Amino acid sequence: MLDVTALVDEFPGPDAKVTAVSSDVMPGGTALNASVTFAYLGGDATLVTSLGASGLIRDFLVEDLVQYGVHVEDICTDPAYRVPVSTVVSTRKLGTRMIINDAAEDCSSLVDRSDFLADGFDLIQLDQYERHFVEQQYAAIREFDGPVILDGGSWKGWSTGFLRLTDIPIVSEVFCQGGPRAFAAMCNEMSITRWAVTRGARGVLWRDGQSEGEIPAVRVDAVDTLGAGDIFHGAFCHAYLRSGDFAPALASASQVAARSCQSVGTRSWMND
Ligand SMILES: Nc1ncnc2c1ncn2[C@@H]1O[C@H](COP(=O)(O)OP(=O)(O)OP(=O)(O)O)[C@@H](O)[C@H]1O
Ligand SMILES: [Mg+2]
Questions:
Q1: Which one of 27, 38, 107, 115 has the fewest CB atoms closer than 10 angstroms to its CB?
Q2: Does residue 116 lie within any of the structural domains?
Q3: Which pTM does this prediction carry?
Q4: Which of 5, 195, 225, 259 best tests ligand 1's pocket when mutated (most atoms within 8 Å of CB)?
Q5: Confidence category of residue 45, pLDDT binned at 50, 70, 90
Q6: Is residue 7 part of a domain?
């Protein structure tokens, strides 16, 4: 995804104008931000995505991912595919953001990569995009030996199918339409024993077999929470692969995510 971002002091009302404190055009999207975080923390990340036809946007994305040490696999063969644009306005005052997502469909014209998972990955993280590719790889992902983690942002028509592939769903509050209890019951039905729900500044709820708990968010003066959930996921995957300990990996991810909230955008925390 391409993020067009503006940080403002306060959201302008209807028909009003404000001047941004800062603005940017940045590669973004759930899995992209997670993979950049994972690589920044020292992991070896491959982002599987659709880059679209050759041109400025594609070059920009590839150059950025190379810079952050993320390998990229382009799965889309549709020359007309265009990378979706997300328009994000964050407020400094409220430490919150609004996002206007592109209506673009996932690429459905795909490379045939039956060997795709033969490359020795340790962990798969899915967001809910590239669903045609996930469908194509469904059996291979099911048989995958390592943990499959799902970042569930909001509930989609195909979320159940993604959950069935998942060992550990770590989902945002809005994904749990009937609330965390209903989500817990759904996981139970699907024999998912390890899951977490992230709730922004109100921290994380988790369950691991018979154990459950709550990890309070680190108290920070949030300047910009854009991508906090994605960064949380990249950091979680990194910590979890190292230790295999679920709750401590969530706690470590919440430290990294809180750090990212203290500076503008999805990357500047890496320089602090
Ligand atoms: N204001 C904040 N202060 C401290 N930590 C935060 C704050 N906002 C988010 N976090 C951390 O980041 C984690 C993920 O945030 P959140 O639950 O908002 O993700 P999300 O709903 O997936 O949003 P997105 O993916 O759009 O960033 C939280 O569980 C928390 O640990
Ligand atoms: Mg999220």
A1: 115
A2: no
A3: 0.95
A4: 225
A5: very high
A6: yes
